[in-house]
Design brief:
- It is a single chain.
- The chain has 95 residues and is mainly alpha-helical.
- It contains three helices and two strands; from the N terminus they run H-H-H-E-E.
- It has a two-stranded antiparallel ribbon with strand order 1-2.
Length: 95
């Protein structure tokens, strides 16, 4: 598949973009280079290569789950700038 100057002109008209002759040639060349690059991605033979979800050797990066006591109301409110009883106090946002 190859992009022509006519294709670039049609795309520019479709989006109501005014471009010069130099820009038409430049965009045609850039789009064709992009198509060549994209088609080269499908060339390598990947038969026998196992699929992967992560490029590195990452193995179980999570810690083990362990039951611990929760923070509790007083601990959660300890650094609150404004509190009322067991609740955070915030500015009114609805009239």
């Amino acid at each position: 598949m190859k992009i022509s100057i006519n294709d670039v002109e049609q795309a520019a008209r479709a989006i109501e973009l005014e471009i010069t002759e130099q820009e038409k040639e430049q965009f045609t060349a850039e789009l064709n280079n992009l198509l060549v690059y994209v088609s080269s991605i499908s060339e390598p033979d990947t038969r026998g290569v196992p699929p992967t979800t992560h490029p590195g050797g990452l193995v179980n990066a999570f810690r083990e789950d362990e039951v611990r006591p929760s923070l509790g109301t007083q601990g959660a409110l300890a650094n609150a700038p404004d509190k009322r009883g067991d609740f955070f106090r915030v500015p009114k946002i609805i009239d």
